[in-house]
Every structure is written in structure tokens, then in C-alpha cells.
Amino acid sequence: MTDPTYLRLGVPPTASRLAVVRAAVRALHPNTRAVCGLRTARKRFYRQMLCAHVARQAADDTSIG
Fold first, then answer.
1. Contact 42, 33 (CB under 8 A)
2. Listed residue (55, 50, 51, 28) closest to 39, CA to CA
3. What are the two backbone dihedrals, phi and then psi, of residue 3, each rounded to the nearest 5 degrees?
4. How far apart are the C-alpha atoms of 34 and 54, rounded to whole Å?
5. Longest Cα pair distance anywhere in the chain, in angstroms?
6. pLDDT, averaged across the chain
7. How many Å apart are CA 61 and CA 65, to the nearest integer?
């Protein structure tokens, strides 16, 4: 099951990891990005989005071949 937050980023399965991180950064509210105390939570969020992206790419690879 794909993370609903990842689906809202709107990145295609062929997107690079950098494009996924950029979309994830844009998805966060500016106030959330500005709070230093939430740095660990932001990093965890970015990692989750990258993991969801890798899982989606793997699912697309298995469905094609």
C-alpha cells in the first residue's frame, strides 16, 4: 500500500530522488519548515517519502516485467 501523503506529492515513478525531496519540501507548510525543533521530524518525513518512492518504482518494475 502506497502512502497517501506520497501520492499527494504528484511525482511520477520515473522522478529522481531529488525531485521527490523537492516535492516533499514544497508539501510542508512554511512554518513547519522554519521550526528548528522539528528538524528530526522533517528528516523522517523526507525519508518516508523516499522509501515510498522506491517502493512505487519497484512495484512498477514488477508489473512491467
1. yes
2. 28
3. -65, 125
4. 28
5. 44
6. 92
7. 6
- Report pLDDT digits (tens) over 41-62: 999 999 999 999 999 999 988 8
pTM over 0.90: no
Contacts of 48 (CB under 8 A, 6+ apart): 3, 5, 6
Tallying the residues shown for the chain, one arrives at 65
Q: How far apart are the first and last CA of the chain?
A: 20
Instruction: Give the count of beta carbons closer than 10 Å to the beta carbon of residue 9.
Output: 19
Residue 47, all three cell numbers: 525519508
d(C-alpha 42, C-alpha 64), whole Å? 33
Grid coordinates representing 59 are: 512495484
